[in-house]
Amino acid sequence: MVDKSLIMINELFWLIFGHCLADYSLQPAWVAKMKRTDNYILLVHAIVWGGTLSIILNYFAMFSVWKLIFLIGGHFLLDYIKCHTKKDIWKIDQILHFSQLLIVLI
Question: Where are the domains of the chain?
């Protein structure tokens, strides 16, 4: 029998992988630039990010609508704040995104 903590570590690994994929690889340079001034582009980015993570959650039979809304809404809000702050808050932004992953995991 597989230990539950190992299962959770595996699920967390795939959520972090999905986060990196959607927040970097699936975000072209023009999106990274345009989301700073265009909330529609920012929303599309948040939907892609939340959708990617929702596919992973669904694979592990952990998907629910509240998690999708939480992921998309939270990502939009965090990136909106990051894009409209003059200080470099990248580390804080990533910690909060990882916190989102932990919340949907439990």
Answer: 4-105
